[in-house]
Amino acid sequence: DMMLRIEDMGVTYPGNVLALRPTTVDFNKGEFTVLLGLSGAGKSTLLRSLNHLVQPTAGKVVSAEFGDLDNRRTVRLHRSRTAMVFQHHQLIERHTALQNVLTGRLAYHSTWRSLLPMPRRDLELALHCLERVGLADKALARIDQLSGGQQQRVGIARALAQQPSMILADEPVASLDPATSEKVLGLLRDICQEDGITAVISLHQLEYAQRFADRIIGLANARIVFDAPPADLKQHH
Ligand code: ADP
Ligand code: ADP
Q1: One-character DSSP codes across 82-146
Q2: What spacing in Å lies between the alpha carbon of 110 and ligand 1's midpoint?
Q3: Looking at ligand 1, which residue's alpha carbon is closest to its atom 11?
Q4: How far apart are CA 61 and CA 225, in angstroms?
Q5: What is the reported pTM?
Q6: Ligand nearest to the CA of residue 233, numbered in listed order
Q7: CA–CA separation, 62 vs 53, rounded Å?
Q8: pLDDT tens digits for 76-99?
Q9: What order do you get walking across the sheet with 67-68 strand by strand?
Q10: ipTM above threshold 0.90
């Protein structure tokens, strides 16, 4: 059940840097896909092209819901349903967890809405998202008072507040210790499973990919070198 397809899609950066060779891949509804590869392999480029944060220079991205991402309207609609989680969370450090989650929600409202008082249902949704990542009691704590793992969980709550059908996470645990990384990845996978959210996560640790992924896409030198369930990677390796 296709959710998003890249079709002969490739990315060449200015200066003729080939970051992703033209390739065709279907991302399926509800699947938890890990992009695995060393630094420079092209993971981030592929991930960001999925919502046109990076503009493909060949081929195209097709959303099952909205069609070809070949115009601003379609890209905007697709982005409104696609949440991002970053390595360095990109939260506002001196704001509270709750404020950060609300900001994520309001970013997708039109300008005139942001001038009105906060609707109660937005507040309730934001609190509910913090509850789901186990941080209900930290709603009013400032980001800079939270641990790295807690900050990343706020990042996940902010993504959830967007009520996405897809989550793109670029190296979400790269700056966390192993125990915290496992907790954060487990949480992200469980939430995506519960809500039927399609997830694409870039990682560079094979162990985490094998433990959490439904599907692993291996990248090396701007090319997909592997695309299969984790069990197959074990044999292959
Ligand atoms: P990864 O996420 O696997 O580390 P990237 O997608 O970030 O890989 O990078 C793939 C290749 O593209 C690398 O050779 C990198 O140096 C290059 N690259 C990434 N971003 C840019 C950019 N904005 N301009 C030029 N080259 C880039
Ligand atoms: P290593 O032997 O250290 O795994 P490789 O060059 O074989 O180094 O792998 C490069 C990267 O791709 C590593 O991050 C590794 O985890 C991952 N990887 C290893 N085997 C495969 C495979 N069969 N397909 C895709 N990625 C792989």
Answers
A1: EEEE-TT----TTSBHHHHHHHHHHTTS-HHHHTSPPPHHHHHHHHHHHHHTT-GGGTTSBGGGS
A2: 33
A3: 19
A4: 20
A5: 0.86
A6: 2
A7: 15
A8: 999 999 999 998 878 999 999 999
A9: 17-28, 2-13, 58-63, 67-68
A10: no
